[in-house]
Amino acid sequence: KAVVSTQSTGAAFGEVVERVPVWIMRQAGRYLPEFREERKKHDFFTICQTPELACEVTLQPIRRFDLDAAIIFSDILVIPQALGMEVLMKTGVGPVFPEPLVHPSDLDKLDANVDVRTKLHYVYEAITLTRQKLEGKVPLIGFSGAPYTLMGYMIEGGGSKTMSKAKKWLYTEPEASHKLLKLLTKVIIAYLIEQVAAGAQLLQVFESSAEYLGPALFETYSLPYLEEIAAGVKQGITQRGLGDVPLIVFAKGAYHSISKLSYAGYNVVGLDWTVDPNIARDFVHIAVQGNLDPCALYAPKEDLITKTTEMVRQFGGRNYIANLGHGIYPDMDPESVRTFVDTVHRVSEENMRKGDPYSQLYT
């Protein structure tokens, strides 16, 4: 599979590829029985913090499916942990912060001078080990949560359907909000650069909570920091002679700002399932990633094939990485993933042989 190993990075840079590359957010996770076996033996953060275990679960979906990229098994909340906050992963609940940020004065409790090179060494060790185990079969993606998404967890104390506590800070404590976002941005830049130094070949920034921000709040409290991350990471990896690594930004729910995101310094704009592919192609001038509704994988096999085929044909074969529009759900049948992945490859290869008239529109 030596030729295919460059498909994901090639598509991210806008190069012509022989087929559309595909990977899946949360592809290493609870929907896989082999992952559930690991979880019976180890708690979530033990897996994240043990390079050999993180490597093993990263490789599980690569062994099972014909995916075009691996993504290191970790969690966006390792950054709040590095800053000194306790984070627990409770079964049936998700992440819980026993002592969330409540008042601006709580920012003083954070380790603003944290050295992520030492504090998060286990992530880099897992990346290096996984690169070795992959043996060039597919590229390895590193990632981080984006500042506002991390801020939301740190203030809400976990997941939230409204993010009202975190948004309250934006309206009542704008200075403290920017102070926290600036700190997170600085740490994220350093964290992502170290991931590249460890061997990550692509990077994705997850602004998963963008859906809670309207255009004005997004452009004040999210977009400027996403831009700063892209610029800072690219500058940092250049200064260290680490080559050119594609950056993907995924701002779930920020459909109103996909055009601005395409000018934010990234190579790829990830799209959630609410974005029409044709509209995305009209407003995004760089590569795109996405965006099948994760729930489409519940559909009967023939329906899933039809929906996946339509998605690939709408996006075309150029400047495109196939994915879901969000992470896969834990009760998904792994065979549906196989159908999705294999259909992306089959349909895109057929389109390429026919000359793929769609791809010529997006060069």
Key descriptive features of the protein:
363 residues, 16 helices, alpha/beta, 47% helix, two-stranded antiparallel ribbon
Q: Choose one word for the global shape.
A: globular
| DSSP strand count | 9
Structural class: alpha/beta
Terminal CA distance: 26 Å
Q: Helical stretch count?
A: 16
Which percent bin holds the helix content? 40-55%
| Strands ordered across the widest β-sheet | 1-4-5-6-7-8-9
Radius of gyration: 19 Å
Largest sheet: 7 strands, parallel
Q: Give the averaged pLDDT, no decimals.
A: 95
Question: In percent, how much strand structure appears in the residues?
Answer: 5-15%
Note the run of SSEs as H and E.
Answer: HHHHEHEEHHEHHHEHHEHEHEHEH
Low-confidence stretches: 1-5, 357-363
Question: What do these coordinates show?
Answer:
The chain has 363 residues and is an alpha/beta fold. The chain is built from 16 helices and nine strands. The chain has helices at 7-12, 33-41, 44-49, 51-64, 78-82, 116-119, 121-134, 147-156, 164-172, 174-198, 215-221, 223-239, 258-261, 277-283, 301-315, 334-353, and strands spanning 70-71, 88-90, 94-96, 140-145, 202-207, 247-251, 268-270, 287-292, 320-324. The strands form two sheets. It has a seven-stranded parallel sheet with strand order 1-4-5-6-7-8-9. It has a two-stranded antiparallel ribbon with strand order 2-3. α4 runs parallel beside α7 (121-134). The longest helix has 25 residues, at 174-198. It is globular and about 60 Å long. Residues 1-5 and 357-363 have low confidence and may be disordered.
